[in-house]
Amino acid sequence: MNRLAAAHVTQARLTGDHAGYKHAEGLLRRFLATNATLYNIEARSQLASVLLSQHRFQEGYEIAEEALARKQQEPAVLTVISDVYVESGRLKEAASTLQDLIRIAPGLAAYSRMADLTRAYGQADEAWVWYARARVAADSFGGEPAAWVRVMMADLAIKTGQYGRARTYCNEALEIVPDYYLALAYLARAAECEKDYEKARPLLRQVVKTTRSPAFMIRLAHEEDALGAPDQAEMLRDMARVILEVTVASGDIGHLRALALCLM
Rounded distance, CA 10 to CA 64, Å? Predict the structure, then answer.
């Protein structure tokens, strides 16, 4: 059950389809309903992580705290607890937890999260060091983890105005995972920052074709407006509105409510 849930999470990360998180949640809850022993920490930690991925922070926090109370020095528990702390703005506690994680289980999970944390503190130079370590660790796995780290490095490069460097990381990610939607999205973001909408538009079209994400549809609508295609832009906004209305009505992904209200 744990492995099947992890496969659904990987699929969600690869495609941007949040349904994978729902499938994983269902499997993990079924597993815990039949095997809720003291030592079934992996399922609890993974369930907390899946809930955080759906922006259901309070539920994820409660399960993560329960897992921490059962086994405090388990890497999976420390990983998800650090995520809870970051999402709730408790950065000092996140830093302390990540230091423990690095001591116990140095690797991709610890290094990438420390990179994110140093970014939150505005320490870009230190973040680059941690991302470099994360990239080395990710390359031992290959596949989506290796591509994802490079996309996160591209994100940092864009935020520090290094657009050429961002493109290099995105292209590396695409060599690892062809048509990886996040790499395409960040390539488009670099082009947008340089106001090269002709280059950004086909990239975003490919992303939207893959993910059907309202957020990307709205970005693409801006590109269509900028390039003199208002009818296409309005169609995209209408599609995004419908998807958001259905999603928000389902009550599963409440963090999209603000985006839906912007389109009302």
Answer: 20
Give the count of domains, the chain: 2
User: Which domain covers residue 21, as residue numbers?
Assistant: 1-75
Residue 146 belongs to some domain of the structure: no
Phi-psi region of 139 (alpha: psi -120 to 50; beta: other; left: phi over 0): alpha
Q: How many CA atoms lie within 13 A of 180 on its CB side?
A: 26
Q: How far is CA 257 from CA 11, 119, 214, 238, 249, in A?
A: 24, 27, 12, 16, 9
Residue 196 lies in a domain: no
pTM, 2 dp? 0.83
Helix (H, G, I), strand (E, B) or coil at 249: helix
Does residue 24 lie in a domain region? yes
Q: What is the CATH number of the domain that holds 19?
A: 1.25.40
pLDDT digits (tens, 9 = 90+) for 53-76: 887 878 888 888 887 777 767 888
Question: What mean pLDDT comes out for the span 39-56?
Answer: 81
Residues 91, 92, 95, 101, CA torsion sign: negative
Q: What are phi and psi of 56, to 5 degrees?
A: -100, 75
